[in-house]
């Protein structure tokens, strides 16, 4: 059985059809990169996987069961910005992920349970290379360090699925390379299944094992919200290809077919 699967999945906001006819199955350990024009519904898709947006039609299954319509410890998420709490230290931020979860089950944690949570938080913080910054606040961290913190927070509950919404979009190219190495290491070590939105096709090729392009196949100029985007390309990505060249060739192919994504602007 696939980890995640969808059949004729749709998402509407009122009369606005954002996504339609999504069909896929994803196995554990895949790294799916998602590209598509701004506003085509990529974040909405991640929110359905996270459980903060309900599906409108069709099926979306996790382990063969309808995906719960609330976030759970099996799914972690990192957004481009503002994922961390500004008034909490690095340790406080990562502990918060545990506290939010435990509070739902047991109320506040004490004693041995809390000590275990602190040990767990320290381990996650070390994993992302922030062990030296345990008691710093987010405003004292660089952009890259803040995203490392957001990743540690997302991994605190040991999720199987990690959802990344343009997590490196605001970072400088050099820092991005470091973050690519980090996310690749965590993906491999923790056997995560990752869905990552990016506007950078080179990044999509460099990190993913599979690339999805979201686009509309039907348009009505009189009613722009009548049709939603779907997955128009589902491309397996080789691990040993020249990512930059492959990304450029694919970008040209998209341009020839009139698929508008931001990615072409950066590549062509
Ligand atoms: N909660 C909401 N209620 C109503 N409409 C929404 C809601 N969230 C998103 N939308 C609309 O759904 C469409 C898809 O938005 P979404 O953020 O999923 O796109 P996106 O592909 O992630 O865009 P970007 O690449 O710019 O982040 C947009 O038209 C947006 O305005």
TrEMBL record:
One GO MF term attached to the UniProt entry: ATP binding
SMART domains: AAA
Gene3D superfamilies: P-loop containing nucleotide triphosphate hydrolases
Record keywords: ATP-binding, Nucleotide-binding, Transport
Annotated PROSITE patterns: ABC_TRANSPORTER_1, ABC_TRANSPORTER_2
Pfam families: ABC_tran
Coiled-coil annotated residue ranges, if any: none
InterPro entries, alphabetized: AAA+_ATPase (IPR003593), ABC_SmlMolc_Importer (IPR050093), ABC_transporter-like_ATP-bd (IPR003439), ABC_transporter-like_CS (IPR017871), P-loop_NTPase (IPR027417)
Keyword ATP-binding included in the entry's annotation: yes
Residue ranges occupied by any ABC transporter domain in the UniProt entry: 4-241
Protein name: ABC transporter ATP-binding protein
